[in-house]
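note to self: dont lose this again. the chain is below, predicted strucutre after it. 501 aa total, dont forget to put it in the shared folder this time
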Amino acid sequence: MVRIRRWAPFSEKDLLLSQGERDVLRALASIGSGDIEQASRVSGIPKSTIASIIESLASKGLVRVERRTRYLYRATGEGLESLRGFPEEILLSILSARGGEAPLSEVEILMGSERASIAIAWARRRGWIEIRGDRVIMTGSGSLEKYREFIARASDGVYQDEAGLSSEEIQELVRRKMIVREEKRDILFEVTEKGYEVLKGLGDVHVVSRISRDIVSGIVGNMIIRPYNVEAEPREIYPAYKHFYVDFLEMLRDIMLSLGFDEIDDSLVVPELWNFDILYQAQDHPAREIHDILVADSPPADLTHYRDLLERVSREHSSGWGYSFDTGTSSRLIMRSQTTAATIRYLYTHREPPVRAFIIGRVFRSDVIDAKHLPEFHQMDGVAMEHGMSLRRLLGILSQITRALGFREVLFKPGYFPFTEPSVEGYVWIEGLGYVEIFGAGLFRPEVLRMTGLEHNVGAWGMGVDRLAMAYLAISDIRELYSPLIDRLRWHRVASYKAIP
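---
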């Protein structure tokens, strides 16, 4: 039989503590008050276990809990280096050895230009030196010993209330990267009178929260069986699933593959030759200005392998746009601003039909972040080169893609793009938004075909995938596609497969 003990004057709710709660309460009572790190050291119970149970004990009035945030400072390598002397102290010793002044050039030679600049800045701030012409003149001195003492102690970590420095002095060392600040959150506890009284009545009773074979078979023990709430809802479990935007991109990729397109990839950093020149965009076009594109800080690309291509490009630009083409601009490396740079380079090496290819990739623009713009976003570009390719056939391909995405209707209207003619814009109907533009398309201009060395018509199109996803998923802020908020991610978990009315 099972013996169930009861104590007065406390209620059954007070006494029905889990075994973990009993163990933690005993550990806390062995100290009386303190923090959970102390309790963990004394009891051997992991700190994480104590932290998770202490809230339950507090809700039952057995302990009082207080949270405290403290800042711990640790010395960096730069700080430990300063123990041998701050730069401004070293500067004073140099000036003192030279009668109180020295040429700036000599100081820079002795200390190094970067370290001398730091030393001069801080020595002037402390009122120790003046700069007169090209000479550094000593005007005073002081002691930084308290800083050194603090940094020495901070090698093992020092709390702010133990620092011995003012907040301004500590912030000075932080700005100089001599120390770093770590935030430490402590949980302080104190066992209440009720907690001690409950402990007296616990004795050696063992709390049973699960029915085991030993109990059912009738083994006698000094125990309490915790009641079961059969009406309690089970704990909600969130299964793992893909990020909703990654899910959308993969759905778009699957659609293109199912329509017989080959997926291609290309570098994020490309010469302007592929991003602009071969697409017949003039070198003085406003879209190529430094405030619109991101130029890589690197040497220009080596385009000697494309000498024949550059000659054709130069000829088309010079005759068509009427200016002197600069091959140096063609070799400038930039972060690609359009994925057409990848599809045109693919066509340059795949010149015989049939060719169906697409890319979904990131592009970069010098944009300010807001609800509709990001400096880095996704585009999808596609090309189709077939015998007898025409605008009519291209529109048929685009209709297939939009229907596969779940849109019932697509409307085309004439448009303009620098490297296609004729050109169209594609619109789809989205409930609540009306007709929304989702792509631009057209046939490559003859100039583009001649530069690339193609003898057949090419249908091409591009989609802003982020904005397509916004319309498709009914999102009004583009930043939400990359949101880290777990509740929003759970809400979107199947959004990329929903049907559009």
